[in-house]
Amino acid sequence: MARHIYSCPLRWSDMDAFGHVNNVVFLRYLEEARIDFMFRLAPGDGSPSFSGGSVVARHEIDYVRPLVHRHAPVTIESWVTKMTAASLTIAYEVKDPEQVYVRASTVVVPYDLAAGRPRRITAEEKLFLQEYLDQEPAVA
């Protein structure tokens, strides 16, 4: 299973009054990593994959430890944990080599903007996503 790696710079404006990255800002970091994964790395030049739009159906975030401002970026690793005919779940870790700050997941639904409704994942999209699919069995 491959993991998508995204380097995310920390901005001074990301900090709250207590000097650490505000919890809401982590959603923005996840969005940046997800867009980089789904659109920049989508298969083929000129491929229509993922270009029709998508919507977020759900976010889950576990804040493991505070992240304070620094000049070095954090790394966001992402991978697919579940894929159905019309949705996928992307998992993330926001981290650096020493520690994990956030573990999260997002349920994404491909969306047909012209028709104004959800759509199925295409064969091309499924082929691309399978490279990032964690196929390890769940721990009971």
TrEMBL record:
Q: Which SUPFAM superfamilies match?
A: Thioesterase/thiol ester dehydrase-isomerase
From the Swiss-Prot or TrEMBL record, what is one GO molecular function term? fatty acyl-CoA hydrolase activity
In terms of Pfam families, this protein maps to:
4HBT_2 (PF13279)
Where are its TM segments located? none
Q: Which domain of life is it from?
A: Bacteria
Q: Which PANTHER family match?
A: 4-HYDROXYBENZOYL-COA THIOESTERASE FAMILY MEMBER, LONG-CHAIN ACYL-COA THIOESTERASE FADM
- The name on file for this protein is Thioesterase superfamily protein
The top of its lineage is: Bacteria, Bacillati, Actinomycetota, Actinomycetes, Kitasatosporales
